[in-house]
Design goal:
Elements lengths: L1 H21 L5 H14 L4 H35 L6 H4 L10 H15 L10 E3 L2 E3 L5 H29 L14 H20 L9 H4 L3 H20 L1 H14 L10
Antiparallel strand pairs: 1-2
Helix pairs in contact: 3-5, 6-7, 6-9
């Protein structure tokens, strides 16, 4: 794991440094938006372009497969505790391969369906209350924009959950613990993630340099819809009761008798 982090960090630094060094000196944001990464790579020697393209392809494949695996793993874990609709089907484990095959299939199918969004490209502006979806902006761009802010939001909520749990007396188990540094690390992490999340989702307008990250109010609007749907399911379906029953059953499960040898 340590070597994976080290070499992953070195590869990311090389790729980022190459793209930054190849960016146009005058109006770099405009040049990047107009021509994208290919216009930046065109400034480099051909052999270096090939190396960076290989890194980009590997990064896309690695990120895509890891996100798909992580989504399937989360779906299985939530379904195992009865916290999702259709939990029995989603949490089913293949008898031969011992893998949550239905959760993996669901993650693959949803991924393919989202890819189809590339064919949605409205020709005119669409107004939803005070939110305007701009014309000629591919729906996949909106999904990627939400994904950028969603990553920061998911980690921020995890840190907030850890802060609340520690304030209620929870102490982590395992060999790796931060000890007295836990509170400083949690506070700094929450501050950084909160600042980055606000920086990404702040509706500064479509003409601003950050317009590709938030599409004005679009990203916040999607987050609001997801929050409303999640809150409605929590209040109507009450999946928290299923989770509590499972946790209670786990805590009260009798321990296995000791194995004796003759």
């Amino acid at each position: 794991m340590r070597h994976a982090l080290i070499w992953g960090g070195i590869g990311s630094l090389i790729l980022t440094a190459g793209l930054l060094l190849a960016t146009a000196k005058h109006n770099p944001v405009g040049a990047a938006v107009a021509g994208g990464v290919p216009s930046i790579l065109a400034q480099l020697p051909s052999w270096l372009q090939d190396c960076l393209l290989l890194l980009i392809i590997f990064a896309f494949f690695s990120c895509g497969s890891s996100i798909q695996g992580a989504g399937s793993r989360l779906a299985f874990s939530y379904a195992r505790d009865g916290a999702l609709p259709g939990s029995g089907w989603i949490s089913r484990v293949n008898e031969r391969f011992k893998t949550p095959v239905n959760a993996l299939l669901m993650g693959a199918v949803i991924t393919v369906l989202f890819v189809v969004l590339v064919y949605i490209n409205p020709g005119t502006n669409y107004h939803i209350w005070f939110v305007t979806y701009p014309a000629h902006v591919n729906a996949l761009v909106a999904l990627v924009s939400f994904g950028v802010s969603g990553i920061y939001l998911s980690f921020l909520l995890t840190v907030i959950g850890a802060i609340v749990a520690r304030a209620r007396g929870w102490r982590p188990e395992g060999a790796f613990q931060l000890g007295k540094w836990s509170w400083p690390v949690l506070i700094v992490a929450a501050g950084y993630l909160g600042a980055m999340f606000l920086n990404v989702v702040y509706p500064s307008g479509l003409s601003s340099a950050r317009g590709l990250f938030n599409l004005d109010w679009i990203t916040l609007f999607i987050i609001f819809i997801i929050a409303v749907v999640g809150a409605a399911y929590l209040l109507i379906g009450r999946p928290d009761r299923n989770v509590e029953r499972r946790l209670r059953g786990t805590r009260e499960a009798p321990e296995a008798p000791p194995v004796t040898t003759v």
